[in-house]
Write a structure and sequence with these properties.
The protein has 309 residues and is α/β, with parallel strands linked by helices. The chain has two domains: 17-115 and 298-308, no CATH class; 123-284, Trna Endonuclease, Chain: A, domain 1, CATH 3.40.1350. The protein contains eleven helices and eight strands. Helix 6 crosses helix 10.
Amino acid sequence: MPEKGFRRSVNENNVTINFLADWIEASLLFSESHISKNEIVDILIEEQVCHDQGQDLAHIIVTAGWTELALRKRWGGIPATLEIDGSRIQSGARWQDEPIRAFFVLLSILRIYPEWAKAHQDFTVQGDLFEKVVETVCPHLLPGWISYRAGWSPENTKNIPLIVTDLCDKLSMRGASDLKEWISPDANDGGLDIVCYRDFSDEREATPTLFLQCASGKNWRDKVQTPDASSWQKYLNSAVQPGAGIVAPFVIEDKELRMSGLRGQIVVFDRLRLLDVVHKANVSLPEALNTEIIDWIQARVQELPAANS
């Protein structure tokens, strides 16, 4: 049973439906071929989330989870191979056949199994892998645009001056002559992970650009204002402020997505939007990255609590 998001529910639902849906998705990906509503109801009662006479409330909670999963499927975050009916969900594929979705789901459930996460979370490695996957998906999110990892990585440590030099060359910009005056000592790579831009032959400014922050950890909410578009406009001495966005492997609920977009003035790519493109464009990972992702998942899924629940 997940450790987070499943609070005791007696007279009303105190279960986070997003987490319930993630738990069911993970179970179907990594351990179960099918799950029924009655099985989840029984688990909620056995684990004392709902009391012994609380079957009606347990059914309401599970039905809300079913509704959430059906919505995820309609919005492209779950493939057609997963069959959802009124009382049962049938998985039609192995997780090895869906490495991108499996990776995103596993990153998501690190939030609901904090004790398991302590032993299996590696922010540097998972962040690096997530950026590599996003870099692969981005050309399908923005057809005709060029995408590349602009920020720091374990193989290529960068700071803002190095990134600015690189971007000025790619985007035909001039760069701030007084750049050092605008960079704080702790700025590092300025929160910039991936740059997407539309290339033209004329080598002039004012081209469409999108600066992305990849946030694979539960602290993604703290990153909705990075990269700061106005700062990057200053660094690059750009005529146009670049667009900014955040990419996360989680399913972000509608209200929170809207509020995050408003607070950071960013576009938001969550798991549903990423996987919608992956499924429609039949995106596959480069062979070496695919192997990395599968190995990373395999090392963790063997001890995944969801497999025993």
